[in-house]
């Protein structure tokens, strides 16, 4: 068991807290479970994939591993933005059943790592918006802001995430 995983498990058992990595997209705050985050990388132009959906920016090579990169702004239909020095790729480990994948998401900025009581995760309102309710785990309050917690396993649902169709 990795040191990070062990520390996380101990903190979860001790006080039922969950750690999230928060980031921004179009001035809105989002979060993902820190255990899904493999690394955070500065923006680099990925290799384009012919016939890929517009929200798939392409492929990047991370130490010999080729991973697809998704632009969440385009996937959530909240407009495009030119990548800047603060644009980052969050590399996530996604597990769906017996299948594990590594994928990246492009976000405007990384904000912080926060520790939130498990009970503080509230259900998302059943409203119809640009972000599908299927990929929202819930909402958390961080200081005076509300962050949308993404269900990363739904974000990269393998049935929908097929390049070339």
Automatic annotation (TrEMBL):
This is Chemotaxis protein CheW. Its main location: cytoplasm. Residues 17-161 form the CheW-like domain. The lineage of its organism: Bacteria, Pseudomonadati, Pseudomonadota, Gammaproteobacteria, Oceanospirillales. PROSITE patterns: CHEW (PS50851). GO terms for biological process: chemotaxis; signal transduction. Pfam families: CheW (PF01584). Keywords: Cytoplasm. It is found in: Cytoplasm. GO terms for cellular component: cytosol.
């Amino acid at each position: 068991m990795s040191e990070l995983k062990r520390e996380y498990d101990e903190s979860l058992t001790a006080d039922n807290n969950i750690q999230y990595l928060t980031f921004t997209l179009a001035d809105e705050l989002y979060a993902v479970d820190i255990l899904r985050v493999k690394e955070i990388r500065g923006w680099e132009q990925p290799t384009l994939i012919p016939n890929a959906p517009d929200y798939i920016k392409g492929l990047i090579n991370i130490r010999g591993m080729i991973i697809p990169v998704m632009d969440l702004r385009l996937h959530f239909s909240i407009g495009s933005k030119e990548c800047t020095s603060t644009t980052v790729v969050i590399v996530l480990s996604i597990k769906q059943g017996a299948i594990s994948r590594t994928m990246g998401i492009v976000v405007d900025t990384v904000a912080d790592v926060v520790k939130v009581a498990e009970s503080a995760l509230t259900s998302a309102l059943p409203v119809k918006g640009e972000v599908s309710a299927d990929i929202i785990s819930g909402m958390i309050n961080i200081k005076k802001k509300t962050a949308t917690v993404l269900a990363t396993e739904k974000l990269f649902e393998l049935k929908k995430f097929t390049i070339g169709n």
